[in-house]
Design a protein that fits this description.
Elements (H helix, E strand, L loop, with lengths): L2 E8 L8 E7 L5 E7 L7 H16 L6 H22 L10 E7 L2 E7 L3 E6 L2 E4 L7 H9 L5 H6 L19 E2 L4 E2 L5 E5 L9 H9 L4 H15 L7 E8 L13 H69 L1 H16 L4 H7 L7 H23 L4 H18 L5 H9 L4 H51 L2 H7 L4 H16 L5 H4 L6
Antiparallel strand pairs: 1-11, 2-3, 3-4, 4-5, 5-8, 5-9, 6-7, 6-10, 10-11
Length: 520
């Protein structure tokens, strides 16, 4: 459903404009409308309104959130932005704003609001306020209805326009968010406006100013002109956003009429139009119920397909993670080769091992190299202190080199164990066992990862083949054969649902009945 949007502002008799508005169309086709009214008399009211309208619109553009989530985020993120600005600019402490957000998508309206700015729906000559009023006026009106004060006292109360809730960077006492979307009709008009429009003393005048124009921009401009015509002293800032549902429409001709004609028009609008509207509503409801069952079955099929796509995406992601783990085995092998070369080199062994440590080396590899450096340092100390153990030290060193060489080759675990047993120094032998255990654990993890990767790869290929076969079966109208080939799969369940849907949409008609003949 096409939506036409128009905006207009007037500073009134104030020193600065503290209202702000914004609108846009999201990538998913949502129409996004925002209006804010900075709190007059507070530091930075104009800053608060502009900052909030910008942040709120950006939050509503997020395509990964549902509409209720986007509307809630528009309020919370705007509130955080106000808090951050006050923290960085203490002179703005106390600034705040109202906020009205509206989203139109597929003929439905959602909204969220804080404060006393308005969201109106204009339909068939009637005006309805959709959002809650967070000023003191509803409280005073309740006191009037309960007999605590008079209507005159409520109208004269100096706190009647005080806000009970606003976006100020702290806790927000009152928030109005639509729990369910509001169904729109072609010809409806949505109006977001600041309380400057309240200078128009009745809603029928507001409705006339808007609906007498043939497009949204003219309607917004005309509403501002209607406010100006009132001539209210100390007129507040006034801002309006007008959205016409169904696009532009033919202008309503306003002609001078005598009292009798005016009364006739009122009777038609109040008595005849509701009856026509009711008849159209009943017809629309009947058509909706007629198509509901087919739509429900089709939705089940779509849900199944979406479930399979999600599952395949998860498997693909896990396969990629597993491949990355397997790919790490190759670099690890290269590092073991480098360690073996460094150990067998008699010159500057510790320095060469230290050079092998970098940011890409896993923590386990760093521990192994540091352990080897420590062992070699101890061996050098033993050489200096116990010259008579030179032969044994050489054997230990050679055994370590052989051990690392074994790790970098395809030697069986039994061969590695023989190398450990050939190390006569108990401390070195114990630490060598730790190295072997760590390496074997790494090998086991790599094997498990490779097996998991292969299994997932096969599952993805099989699932993809089944989905391809399902697509061909749908195209060739051969779902029964597909169900027979893949009886116990999720794809077969989808095929059954689609078959049932096709049967419902194209029922078998008895030829005799079709010719108007009785079976009897």
């Amino acid at each position: 459903m096409k939506v036409s949007v128009g905006t207009a502002q007037w500073i009134g008799e104030r020193e600065r404009q503290e209202d702000s508005l914004a609108y846009g169309v999201g990538p998913d086709g949502r129409y996004l409308l925002v209006l804010t009214d900075g709190m007059g008399g507070h530091a930075g009211g104009d800053i608060a309104s502009r900052l909030t309208s910008s942040v709120a619109l950006e939050a509503m553009f997020d395509p990964y959130n549902t509409i209720p989530e986007a509307l809630s985020n528009a309020i919370s993120r705007s509130n955080s932005a106000i808090s951050d600005h006050v923290e960085s600019s203490p002179e703005c402490d106390g600034m705040g704003t109202t906020l009205v957000c509206a989203v139109v998508e597929n003929g439905k309206l959602w909204w969220s609001s804080v404060g006393d700015s308005h969201l109106y729906l204009l339909r068939s000559g009637d005006v309805k306020k959709l959002n809650a009023d967070h000023s003191m006026m509803p409280v005073l009106q309740k006191m009037v209805s309960e007999g605590e004060i008079t209507t005159e006292q409520a109208a004269a109360d100096p706190k009647r326009n005080a806000l009970r809730s606003a976006v100020m960077g702290g806790e927000i006492p009152l928030i109005d968010i639509s729990k369910q979307p509001f169904d729109l009709r072609k010809g409806d008009t949505i109006v977001l406006c600041s309380d400057g429009v309240d200078s128009i003393d009745n809603l029928s005048s507001l409705e006339a100013a808007v609906t007498s124009q043939n497009n949204a921009q003219n309607a917004a401009n005309n509403l501002i002109e209607a406010v100006k015509a009132v001539g209210r002293p100390r007129q507040d800032n006034t801002s309006v956003v007008v959205a016409q549902i169904g696009g532009e429409r033919a202008p309503i001709q306003v002609e001078a009429q005598n009292e009798g004609k005016s009364n006739t028009r009122d009777v038609v609008r109040r008595l005849v139009l509701p009856g026509v509207t009711l008849a159209l509503s009943v017809t629309t409801l009947w058509l909706a119920v007629s198509s509901w069952r087919a739509d429900s079955a089709l939705q089940k099929s779509r849900d199944k397909v979406e479930e399979m796509i999600t599952k395949n995406s998860a498997l693909t992601e896990q396969l990629e993670i597993t491949k990355q783990a397997v790919n790490q085995v190759g670099p690890a092998q290269i590092r073991f080769d480098a360690i073996a070369i460094a150990i067998t080199d008699n010159d500057n062994v510790s320095e060469k091992l230290t050079l092998l440590i970098d940011d890409d080396l896993p923590e386990q590899g760093v521990r192994i190299i540091n352990f080897m450096i420590d062992i070699l340092s101890k061996n050098h100390s033993l050489l200096a202190e116990l010259s008579d153990n030179n032969i044994q030290t050489g054997k230990n060193k050679q055994a370590l080199a052989s051990l690392v060489e074994a790790l970098s080759s395809d030697n069986a675990p039994a061969a590695r164990l023989d190398l450990i047993l050939s190390i006569e120094d108990e401390l070195v032998q114990s630490q060598a066992r730790v190295i072997i255990d760590n390496f074997q654990n790494a090998e086991g993890q790599a094997r498990d990862a490779l097996q998991a990767s292969n299994a997932m790869g096969r599952e993805i290929v099989e699932s993809t083949d089944r989905l391809t076969a399902l697509t061909e079966a749908i195209t060739k109208d051969d779902l029964a054969k597909f169900i027979e080939l893949y009886p116990d799969t999720a794809e077969a369940e989808i095929a059954r649902l689609i078959s049932e849907l096709l049967v419902k949409q194209h029922p078998i008609i008895d030829p005799a009945t079709a010719n108007g003949q009785s079976k009897n």
